[in-house]
Amino acid sequence: MPRALENQPPQRAGVKEWLALGVLTLSVLLIAVDNTVLSFALPQIAEALEPTAAGQLWIIDSYPLVLAGLLVSMGSLGDRIGRRRVLLIGATGFALVSVFAAFSASAGQLIAARAALGFFGAMLMPSTLSLLRSIFVDREQRRLAVAIWATSFAAGAALGPLVGGVLLAHFHWGSVFLIAVPILIPLLIGVPLLVRESRDPNPGPLDLLSILLSLVAMVGVVYAIKHFASEGFDVVGVISLLVGGTFGYLFVRRQLRRPIPLLDVRLFKNSLFSGAILVNLLITIALVGFLFFVSQHLQTVLGFDPVTAGLTLLPGLMVLVVVGIVVVPLASKVSPHIVVAIALLFAAAAYLLLAIGPDHPSREVVLIAVILLGVGIGAAQTVSNDLILNAVPPNKAGAAAAVSETAYEMGAVLGTALLGGILTANYRMSLVLPEELAPEDGAAARETLAGAYNMSEQIGGELGSRLMASAVEAFESGVTITATIGALLMVIASFMAWKKLRSRTDTGSFER
What we know:
By secondary structure, the chain is mainly α. It has 2 domains: 434 residues, Growth Hormone, Chain: A, CATH 1.20.1250.20; 54 residues. Helix content is 81%, strand content 0%. It has 21 helices and no strands.
């Protein structure tokens, strides 16, 4: 290549490219909102559909579990038939299934609808982050685009409860699913106009066995975690964990042996890449797990209506978005391992405030915790996503994006399965029921906090008040334990960021 062309600065993105980013982030925003929008709808869903404790967790988890399991597969499908085409198919299917979910008549129907949303949601995700590298050639512009992408995912996760709260104050609980339709309409119009079709010119063969291995591995491991949390340590959970682990091992071994793997697991040999992926996983666990119990605390324990409870989270959402953008120039001057490690300590402080603070944290305490969490996650996600794209060669950007998005969705699954499961298990073990309570009423109250609230309302009087007081005490003791574990996870993530994001390329990734 002539030296003049070699030294020529990369072409900068124009208005069309930034509009394309805006359209693509709609899909990311929608996926993130759907991960957490049910947090505030759970009390109404529990009253209307009467799910068990395990059923309530599956209503939340069936969506991100299926989505995470199929992300890599759908990414491979996009490589073969066109990423834009898969995106449009996914958007259409997602809109249609959202309508079905909104009018589900039973917990089983809602779980099935959520799983179908996960299937189509997996078509929406893979093209977004991988396209940033081709759309934004200029390094500075790409860094900002990555920041917007990262904050849109985190903002969507935090925006879900707020949007849900506003809708639930005026409409049926099914309205939280119908919000997908107005979001997807501009996407279906804008993508054909602004985003060029792209596909891999030499895609590998369709590997159905690898798809099956990855699905069974993820379902097995997550089911084991959920089962341990709700039923305790038993043979069923151990078998599920062993099956998931075995299939995971077989999946990795198969990828290492194939010339064109479904998922390039060799990327994890890069410590900078693997460290950033691990940070993203732990961050998402922390955010989704936090929203899972804080939304219940604000509504059922403190008695706020959904709108007031959602507005309590709004300052944290705003801080998350602002910090995610503001940290961009800072990240070009300070080593990423320092920025991310310090940011994650803010998130740890948010959890610690709930763990060691008042027995029944007030709205003000929750507000401070949410802001601290927003600072930590906003900064850490922007920097870690920039590292993920720049820690691998350009021809590996698609594979890196698939791994990154899978980590996000696995974090969403584990946020409720792990932290939510621990909270549910502690609630059921700690709840002391009044002796005069009928066995069938006690069984309903022991399932979930929402179940106890509904039962106390039906019983009424002094007995109902005693039942609710006992349920709140059991729930809050679980919050203390769960928040302590969340703080510990963030401290571990901070330590991992300090160690693994420190390499000979850690500053170079922001300066190239």
